[in-house]
Amino acid sequence: MTVRVQEAPFDIGAEVAAFARGRSDIGAIVTFTGIVRDVGDGLQHMLIEHYPAMTQPAIEKIEAEAASRWSLGDSLIIHRFGPLTPGEQIMMVATAAPHRAAAFQAAEFLMDYLKSRAPFWKKEVTGDGEAWVAAKPDDEDALSRW
Amino acid sequence: MIDVVYFAWVRERIGLPKERIKTDAGTVADLVDELRNREPRYAAAFADLTALRVAVDQELTDFDAPLAGAREVAFFPPMTGG
User: Fold this and answer.
1) What domains are there in chain B, each with its CATH number?
2) ipTM of the complex, rounded to two decimals
């Protein structure tokens, strides 16, 4: 189980290649990558702020909860902060399990919880100014299915 | 003494990321009342508590949480990770 909170970009290919390498008990790896998207407002960049003292432990807690619910061989969560431009990777989740159902479900669980329980805040900067991205009621509702 | 930290628009509205406060507040809600009475910028930031989340010593909690022994309280809008 690995959690990395970093400003630097990451190489998704290298991360997945190294993830669960050499393990013979893993039958499925699921990965999710979050990308900075311009919704048509002329996004110049996205600023991601976080709470350094809380971010790592909060994500580790979410990861431990996933590990207690599903039979996971391993999991990896990388989340970036700082200024990002459209098309850049924001974060990734990888889950490894003996079977695909657990890997898919655990990845979705991790994403749902990272969305509204990991202390990150996004600000969008466009030519017209800047605005904080508001949390959606759907994000909170998504937690109730777990 | 307690460290109070602010993030995102709460930090912008109050105008600073962190401050050390001398307080006898028993709960987070009591601390919020003290802050609101300080200056209009605090009253503006804490106008609607349903738009805010709070963490005590880096653990997400509620506004009725006790502050006894707490070292750091953080106020921020709902999180938008992922």
Assistant:
1) 2-76 (3.10.20.30)
2) 0.95
